Amino acid sequence: MGLLDRLLGKPLSTHDEAEHHIGLATGVPVLGLDALSSAAYGPEAALTLLLPLGAAGIAHVVPIIAIICAILLVVFVSYRQTIAAYPGGGGSYTVAKENLGPRAGLVAGAALALDYILNVAVGISAGVGALVSAVPALLPYTVPLCLLILGLITLANLRGLKESGAIFMVPTLAFVGTLAVVIVVGLVKMLASDGAPLPVAAPPAVPPALEAASVWLLLKAFASGCTAMTGVEAVSNAVPIFRKPAVPVAQRTLTAIIALLIVLLGGIAVLCKAYGIAATEPGADGYQSVLSLLVAAVLGRGVFYYVTMGAIVAVLALSANTSFADFPRLCRVLADDRYLPGSFAERGRRLVFSNGIILLAVLAGALLFGFGGITDRLIPLFAIGAFLAFTLSQAGMVAHWRRTGGPGARRSTVISAAGAIATGATLVVVTISKFGEGAWLTVIIVPLLYVFFRRVHAHYADVADQLATIEPMAMPERQDPIVVLAAGTWSRMTQRGLKFALRLSDEIHVVQVKTETSTTEDLSDNWQLLIGNPARQARIVAPKLVVLTSAYRQFFTPFVDFVAALAAEHPERDIAVVIPDLIMSHWWEGLYHNNRGSLLRAMIRARCTDRVVVISTLFHLHD
Amino acid sequence: MGLLDRLLGKPLSTHDEAEHHIGLATGVPVLGLDALSSAAYGPEAALTLLLPLGAAGIAHVVPIIAIICAILLVVFVSYRQTIAAYPGGGGSYTVAKENLGPRAGLVAGAALALDYILNVAVGISAGVGALVSAVPALLPYTVPLCLLILGLITLANLRGLKESGAIFMVPTLAFVGTLAVVIVVGLVKMLASDGAPLPVAAPPAVPPALEAASVWLLLKAFASGCTAMTGVEAVSNAVPIFRKPAVPVAQRTLTAIIALLIVLLGGIAVLCKAYGIAATEPGADGYQSVLSLLVAAVLGRGVFYYVTMGAIVAVLALSANTSFADFPRLCRVLADDRYLPGSFAERGRRLVFSNGIILLAVLAGALLFGFGGITDRLIPLFAIGAFLAFTLSQAGMVAHWRRTGGPGARRSTVISAAGAIATGATLVVVTISKFGEGAWLTVIIVPLLYVFFRRVHAHYADVADQLATIEPMAMPERQDPIVVLAAGTWSRMTQRGLKFALRLSDEIHVVQVKTETSTTEDLSDNWQLLIGNPARQARIVAPKLVVLTSAYRQFFTPFVDFVAALAAEHPERDIAVVIPDLIMSHWWEGLYHNNRGSLLRAMIRARCTDRVVVISTLFHLHD
């Protein structure tokens, strides 16, 4: 356990769980990271789609971002209400389940689960994208870098990253601060130059237009830009972790996050237009992220550029961390409701839900590997899940207000309905416009996940049904089992098994299976000497020797047939199959030995009735 | 089992083992394939080394092949004697072990094992090389084609390829027949044209000379050409499969094989020189095997060309099959002597040594994959093992003749000594000249294998030592074990375990481990109702309930600690740990459940003494 201890830290006692509550200053970094970091890829995703329009395309980014900010405001107002209504934490799964029924909750859960996985992949790939923009020599190592960062985040989470916010505070401050400087300086330069500022480091020439603007293309650009909205639900999920009074503190935190996000998105869009910054082809040589081009254009490639890019890399990579907090919690809630195996509800050595963390890392790693770590290929799959969950959550709130009633219920209903309509409409646009590029995969995966959850649930219900009993137990009479001992050659190991059998019962069958070509010594040769005579002297019933032969060189079938026949012959008795087992001092020594004991055990479990029990006696080898 | 049955055929009974004996006509294809097929890569391997000499290099192939044929004749005479001396089959392992001691035998065994693996890889890669020479479009698929052929051969061998020779006879006849036609026609044309025949299809121009001939280069070419000698030991290994009188029939078969091989090698060498055929760069674009160039030069690229190439591909691929017959048999002999796990001595469903076949396929597949399926890269590793085994076998025969004495012993000793010296000298030349190109790997692997075999042997000796007993067994008194039942929530499954325990003993501890955050119901709440009262009514000792708590959310450690403490407290008693087990109808349902039973079982086996036995009671779920 030495290595594990060093990697993951010493196990924590359940007593060690400290209650720590956060305020606005830590709330923004801890819960806003996912949302704020989307500013680094949302506008870029829209600009990439506008690339075929050439220089003319860049101008379209401003109205697209404006619409996105408007939807963001509607969603913001609606989530403020959710915070007040669910001070215990109102995740989409909970809100949809309680107000729209378990099936709607499960759809929201499936959508969220997928989105959390995608968020990890997108956050890390965008972070690495920013890194290779600053250091182009790293471009060929995109996938290994992604997996390295994923591994580090996973390890940190398995250790139990305290949500102290300290780790998050510095990069978040740096990210917001440096980008704010870029935006302010850029805007000043823009105004000073009558809207046509001279870039310090010129962005690459915009490629010529290949097509004219079409509604379809603009819808697709909008849909891609909508990825900027992911992550805004984090605060409403986590109300209980705020310090008292939790609701207003959480609401203020949400307000701060949304305000910062709108400033960042708007500033980036306006400056891209002013500086004529288009996206570059993702995954191709010479790729640079839009923010890299923008920072260089406004302030040049000096020290400040590298500080800003460093903050972006850190924030994007850490934004993946939000999923590492939320996904295991979602799994836990699903496991509590028996939609996932119970192990997802158990906390590991460091008081975190280790199984959920590991599952998330494996799935996100597979995505990063499969999609070559390129953000642009992942974006079409992304956001659908988030908007589906948003929509179900808001629709759930509509049902909530209608049910609870009371003063202000009408106004709240209208706000939630507006949120539901805005996110629902966005969901439709995103799904249709991205369908061909990969959204179809999401459209397939979410229902499959839904079916999977329900099948798991049905299985547990079935098991519980078959296992449950509250009747006082009928006490059985004492009765010796009929013992069947699996014997090979005669050895101390067999002796150990027989000794236990003799203490247990008078009715013992020692069964040796021999194949015709077997070189194993026949036990009957020395049976009298080894067993028969001592038993007679001790005046006990001697165990019966049964030698079975197999024409097919199979060891198991004749043995299991014998046990099954014995069980059928004695319908009232327990049959105890004793399998003497050899325990090695080193695991690799096990490879030198055939695994007959385990195989025999497995076959008896599969083929025999409940009245057959399997007894392993142990014989430890010493070095 | 439906799929297995279809893939591998129905299991065969041990009775089905038919004795079939072969004569000269089937003996040559079955046992000569490996040797004869070397004609397809031996001369080519030498020519490839001569490539830097340009056109001048080609002439050197004739003396090189002449020397190889001379050594072949010495080895032939020596192996004729081995056949007579070991009518029961004189593999190098057996001959070396019996005459030079077990260590020498083991070295021969290790060398042979490696060589058999390499033979599979070389045979298949050379076959695929011939195929891509005829159909250059297949060149990029070299490795997949190699693995496909390997898979088919493995499957055929797992089914139990009857050594009827029918499958081998046709390609062998076609191979020898077509090459004989090529050689005869080529020689006639050569003689008719005064040694400078006009090629029908001209071979590619020989690249210019890059260096002058040196002794070192010629030695290397000779060493590569020596791969043509591999496979000549097959007949002496397999004397018992010949029809009576086995020894002379086997000797005639060996004579026929060696004669054919010498004709093929000599003819190819002379014609390559006459037609000016050099090797082409292996693995590069435009690669063609030497035989492909030769056949095309003598007879053009007509139907005959494709028939010949087809026969070469078939014979090379089938030559891998010789290893599939010999390697598992070698493993079996090693397993019988306890140098390998016993499972290598057990025959599978189709009466073949399935484990040896599978191991060979895996190792050869890894080689083909690792070396990109390129014969030329594999050649330097090859032949060293064969020559080491040859040398040990001949040296063993020298010892044999000296020991047995008798008439003709002196003559036999001289012949075997000549064989040992010839093959030993070749071994030294091959090892030194190929050391840098990959032979060093062989020089490392053979000793490692030797050490591995000896460690396995030592392990088995140690186990046998600890297990062996022939003393009459001391009969124990009847005594109830102390039972510890692992309980979670109360269920029919737990009930089943407790019922078995109650039949067995009066002293039962029902142990529930709870973590502080556990949502599991505490058994103590309903204990009186479920167990206490019924036990009182039945006037039996009620089982004791023990609830353990764990601050570290660990289930196993507190339980195992409890069992260990109990065992220490009662040094004279057996402790029976009952683990109730749930048996699913489908294997994948097992994934829905944590595997606590198996893990607990493993921990108890690892940490408790021999007095603790593990009892699994079964509860089958029905659909």
Write structural notes for this entry.
The structure is a homodimer of 623-residue chains. Helix content of chain A is 62%, strand content 6%. In chain A, strand 4, helix 22 and strand 5 form a beta-alpha-beta unit. Chain A is elongated, with a radius of gyration of 33 Å. A 5-stranded parallel sheet of chain A has the order 3-2-1-4-5, with helices on both faces. Chain A has 2 domains: 441 residues, Amino acid/polyamine transporter I (Up-down Bundle); 139 residues, Rossmann fold. Chain A has 623 residues and is of the alpha/beta class. The model of chain A has no long low-confidence stretch (mean pLDDT 87). At the A-B interface, helix 18, helix 19, helix 20, strand 4 and helix 22 of A face helix 18, helix 19, helix 20, strand 4 and helix 22 of B. Strand 5 of chain A pairs antiparallel with strand 5 of chain B, so a sheet runs across the interface.
